[in-house]
Design goal:
The chain is α+β, with helices and mostly antiparallel strands and about 200 residues long. Helix content is about 25%, strand content about 45%. It is built from 4 helices and 10 strands. Strands 2, 3, 7 and 10 form a 4-stranded mixed β-sheet that branches. It has a 4-stranded antiparallel β-sheet with strand order 6-4-8-9, with no helix packed on it. A two-stranded parallel sheet has the order 1-5. It is elongated, with a radius of gyration of 27 Å. This is Carboxypeptidase regulatory-like domain-containing protein. It comes from Chitinophaga rhizophila. Keywords: Signal.
Length: about 200
Amino acid sequence: MRIAISFMTMAFVCLTGMSFAQRGPKPPKVLYPEFAFDSLTAREQLKRGKGTIQGIAFTKEKNSFGVKPLLAEKIYATNTKIILFPVTPYFDAWYQMRRKKEGKRTYVYMSDEAYRFRLETRTDSYGNFTFTEMKPGRYFLQAIVGWSTTHGQNVYSGSGYNGYGRTDYYTRSYYNVSHSDRIEEFVEVKESGEVVKVKLH
């Protein structure tokens, strides 16, 4: 009898375990481009040239419809890392794949080798940044801008009684909400020595 009960218990645990596993959230799906990365092409494009890319990075807070209003106040990317990638055939494959398949539970990554071929700089207090010694070619700029907003709410703090009955008291409480926005832009240096200005937003 004991053997039968143990067997049935084990079977129940296994079945319920499968049920819980099926009900749980699915792990995110990670995709990579099925395209061979050519390090020689990327290395050649990142060699030193005579061009300059000057930019300013900023974003705007979205409204309730998920749109950034044109007249909304700019949020400048202060002391923020700016990443530059050379636009190679592999990069094009990654970008197109990300546009088509990236979602809430799906991420499209480039290979570790491809990610190593990049340049980085940082913005100043007003979102300005510069990449110098750039060769003619197409490049992709990316940054993650973080900021916070302050909100207030009335919090119940107690009650009191007087000749008119009960009175509830509230105090104003404030809290911060963190936000982040991925901003990206393509830029092209068309000729040697050119100074290209770009708004990254």
